[in-house]
Amino acid sequence: MNTIMRQLLIFTMLLLGADSFAQQASDPEQRLKELNIQLGAMKQPIANYVKAVQAGNLLFLSGHIPDEVAGKKTRGKVGSQLSVDEGKEAARLTAISLLATLKAYVGDLNKVKRIVKVFGMVNAEPSFTQHPTVINGCSDLMVEVFGERGKHARSAVGMGSLPLDAAVEIEMVVELK
User: Fold this and answer.
1) CA separation, residue 126 to residues 79, 119, 167 (Å)
2) How far is the CA of 151 from the CAs of 34, 131, 139, 140, 174, in angstroms?
3) Domain extents for the chain?
4) Contact (CB, 8 A) for 33 and 23
5) Contact of 68 with 167, CB cutoff 8 Å
6) Exposure of 117 in the CB half-sphere (CA atoms within 13 A)
7) Could you give the count of Cα atoms lying within 13 Å of 87 in the half-sphere of its Cβ?
8) Residues with Cβ within 8 Å of residue 75, at least 6 apart in sequence
């Protein structure tokens, strides 16, 4: 951060009060509006499971795959049928679906204390090695929405296939306030 930006940040914090500024900067509901992301309705499970289970203050979200979106490739193997960038976009779309489920369960994303863990699976060719880059599509969005609270532990692995030939499947663990 350059000196001018740092001074503007300090000045803003002094004007608003540090607590108010921190709260405003980390309001995930507001961030979604700023990012022009509208969360759709939570999709129903396609088999015999539930989309989320709460244990104490942890919420475990089941594996989500990207919605099919006109003009976006979300099905097929990354590395042959999809580029790394298309895989990354599929991971971002999956993150939006995870957020829709999270919001359906908690009502307000401000109830999220932090994103704890992301487990990303990439439908990839056997020689593919850029799994972390693909799953960054999800991780980057969590940080964009939740700020520091969106930084998480993560695994990014390759799979020989995924349900419905999805490019990615992602699970998430969230700590609630």
Assistant:
1) 9, 19, 14
2) 19, 18, 7, 9, 11
3) 3-176
4) no
5) no
6) 10
7) 31
8) 68, 81, 164, 165, 166, 167
> Architecture of domain 3-176 in CATH?
2-Layer Sandwich (3.30)
Structural contact between residues 118 and 150, judged by C-beta atoms closer than 8 angstroms: no
Can you read off the two tokens belonging to residue 114?
A: 């932090």
Q: What is the distance in angstroms between the CA of the first residue and the CA of the last residue of the chain?
A: 31
Q: What contacts 43, CB < 8 A, 6 or more positions away?
A: 51, 64, 67, 97, 100, 101
What is the model's pTM?
Answer: 0.84
- Residues 113-141 have pLDDT tens digits of 999 999 999 999 999 999 999 999 999 99
Quote the CA–CA distance of 103 and 145 in Å, as a whole number. 13
